[in-house]
Amino acid sequence: MALPSLASSHFTFLAHPYPVSMTQPLPLTPEGLTRLQAALEREQARRDEARRVVQEQMEANENESLDLAAAQEALSGAEARIGELEDQLARAVLLAPNGGTPGQAALGSQVRLLHVDLGRELPLQLVSAAEAAAGPGEHGAALVSSESPVGRALLGRRAGDEFVVDLGRLQTRYRVLTVED
Questions:
Q1: Which of 13, 31, 119, 124 has a CA that sits 20 to 30 A from residue 107's CA?
Q2: 156-168 mean pLDDT
Q3: Which residues contact 33 (CB under 8 A, 6 or more apart)?
Q4: Cα angle vertex 116, ends 114, 117, to 5°?
Q5: Is the confidence at residue 179, as pLDDT, over 60?
Q6: pTM for the full model?
Q7: What is the Cα–Cα distance from 103 to 76, expressed in whole angstroms?
Q8: Per-residue pLDDT, 101
């Protein structure tokens, strides 16, 4: 499936857990696209199994069966998730390599942060909310949504920058160690 690339990976994101519009382009890394496609395949297999069980229960004339109700519920859930994944894949736009300013954190960037208070390094990749929800990242890096508090604070930062993330009663200080496109 050929997808258009974004000329720039700079976006304005609202602090909202779900897409504001289901027609907006969905920026994804190549790995994120692969994870979404794999999730769709898993859901389609789950749906097919639920359909098989529903059919078996109906043929056995057990319409009042708890197994039938559970299978119908599983089928409904799988179909809803398939619709959501198909929508995301239809809106997918691959992030252009080095689409942003080199050395500046943007969608798709691999970043190493230092949690200043704990002295711990945190490898992460800055991704869209849909990609972060699709599954774990590769190479041990956590997938951090650009819409999360850390992700919003990280956008546009460079190696050496320090920033504080305020989570209500908790403030956490980070230092950017590296940014790779």
A1: 119
A2: 94
A3: 3, 89, 92, 94
A4: 135
A5: yes
A6: 0.70
A7: 45
A8: 79
Tokens of 129: 């909310």
CATH class of the 26-94 domain in this structure: mainly alpha
Burial class (CB in 10 A: 0-12, 13-18, 19+), 159: middle
Instruction: Output the pLDDT for position 62.
Output: 56
pLDDT band at 15 (very low <50, low <70, confident <90, very high): very low
Count of residues in the chain = 181
7: DSSP letter: S
Whether residue 90 contacts residue 98, with contact meaning beta carbons closer than 8 Å, is answered with: no
- DSSP helix/strand/coil, 109: coil
In this structure, the dihedral spanned by the alpha carbons of residues 111, 112, 114 and 120, taken in order and rounded to 10 degrees, is: 140
**For 110-180, CATH number?**
3.10.50.30
Q: How far apart are the C-alpha atoms of 89 and 28, rounded to whole Å?
A: 9
Domain boundaries defined on the chain: 26-94, 110-180
Q: In which band, very low, low, confident or very high, does the pLDDT at 23 lie, cut at 50, 70 and 90?
A: confident
